[in-house]
Amino acid sequence: MRSEERIASAIREGRRFLVASHVNPDGDAIGSSIGLSLVLESMGKEVFTYNESAVPALYRFIPHSDRITQELPPEEVDVTFVLDCSTAERVGQKFKEFAGKGLVVVADHHPPSAPMEGLHLIRTEASATAELIYDILDELDVPLSPESATAFYVAIMTDTGSFRFSNTTPRALEVASELLSFGANHRLIVENIYESFPPERFRLMAMALSTLHFLKEGKVASVWVTRSMFQEAQANDEMTEGFVDIPRSIKGVEVAMLFREKDGCDIRVNLRSRGKVDVGDIAAKFGGGGHPNAAGCTLKGSLMEAEECLLKALEEAMG
């Protein structure tokens, strides 16, 4: 029996469900969680939708985004969906310690790293986790509401970079088309994700771009965002969404790096590649992960030290 069929069977048999995704959720984690939760509820299931982190402001326009809470169910569920990651650690410590998970179903499109025990649907060629959930729902033959279709469409649209990245496959476009036929609100998504930025974001972007510098004879571009920049621009970390794609778009750049100072000595790093370098492998060396062309990790120390560490790893990968 195919994974999609086994998972569909678990959905039919289950009554109480927990839908969870990784900390610091992105559009795919949020969209997949909301979309799946709405479909399960339409089937008469009791559903709890969990994330350790609050929904970023950028995605609060998604219908029913307020259903994602930071509270786990008070008692055991029949089935727990773990979306857009494959380990309990990525969901967070509270989830890891939760004893009432029931049957665990992992749906993820990242390279697996010791996935949780249970049913797995892991396909790295998928454009987004939402694409995998859509394939499961195909087995159930359940129609989508405009709200659930919009949530899934957000997931695919953001994870493909508005259908610009190399993971924009024929299947991704096929699913996106079908979501539109179910009533996904394309215009609502475009307005809120790409056309509603606050002025503080652009003040921060101007400061960040002033740090732009090139390494490895122009093949690597790096941008820094310091705590003082956040304070001066009156901006927050969410407003750096998409910053790393700016240096990636420069002709001749093969790898782009965005470094952000966090609390304490933490430096958050976002990596993007044009395809010649697997930045997912590089991020994994520092306890992070992701895809070959998009990944991230967290390092300790100063911005300069963090950049030196990543540059050394890049030099080994690029030769």
Topology readout:
Layout: H1 3-13, E1 16-21, H2 27-42, E2 46-50, E3 79-83, H3 88-91, H4 93-97, E4 103-108, E5 119-122, H5 129-140, H6 146-159, H7 170-181, H8 186-194, H9 199-209, E6 213-215, E7 220-225, H10 227-233, H11 245-248, E8 255-261, E9 266-273, H12 279-284, E10 289-290, E11 294-300, H13 303-318
Parallel strand pairs: 1-2, 1-3, 3-4, 4-5, 7-8
Antiparallel strand pairs: 6-7, 8-9, 9-11, 10-11
Helix pairs in contact: 1-5, 2-6, 5-6, 6-7, 9-10
* Helix-strand makeup class: alpha/beta
* SSE series: HEHEEHHEEHHHHHEEHHEEHEEH
Terminal CA distance reads 44 Å
Mean pLDDT across residues: 95
The tally of strands reads 11
CATH architecture of the largest domain: Alpha-Beta Complex
Q: Helical stretch count?
A: 13
Largest sheet: 6 strands, mixed
Query: Per the principal axes of the C-alpha atoms, what is the gross shape?
Result: globular
CATH class of the largest domain: Alpha Beta
The percentage helix is 25-40%
Task: Describe the strand arrangement of the main beta sheet, using strand numbers.
Answer: 6-7-8-9-11-10
Gyration radius, in Å:
20 Å
Give the CATH superfamily of the largest domain: inorganic pyrophosphatase (n-terminal core)
How many domains comprise the coordinates?
2
Quote the CATH topology of the largest domain: inorganic pyrophosphatase (n-terminal core)
Detail the poorly predicted runs.
Answer: none
Strand proportion, as a percent range, falls in 15-25%
What does this protein look like?
The model has no long low-confidence stretch (mean pLDDT 95). It is globular and about 55 Å long. It has a six-stranded mixed β-sheet with strand order 6-7-8-9-11-10, sandwiched between helices. A five-stranded parallel β-sheet has the order 2-1-3-4-5. Helix 6 packs antiparallel against helix 7. It has two domains: 3-194, Alpha-Beta Complex (inorganic pyrophosphatase (n-terminal core)), CATH 3.90.1640.10; 199-318, Diaminopimelate Epimerase, Chain A, domain 1, CATH 3.10.310. The chain contains 13 helices and eleven strands. By secondary structure, it is α/β, with parallel strands linked by helices.
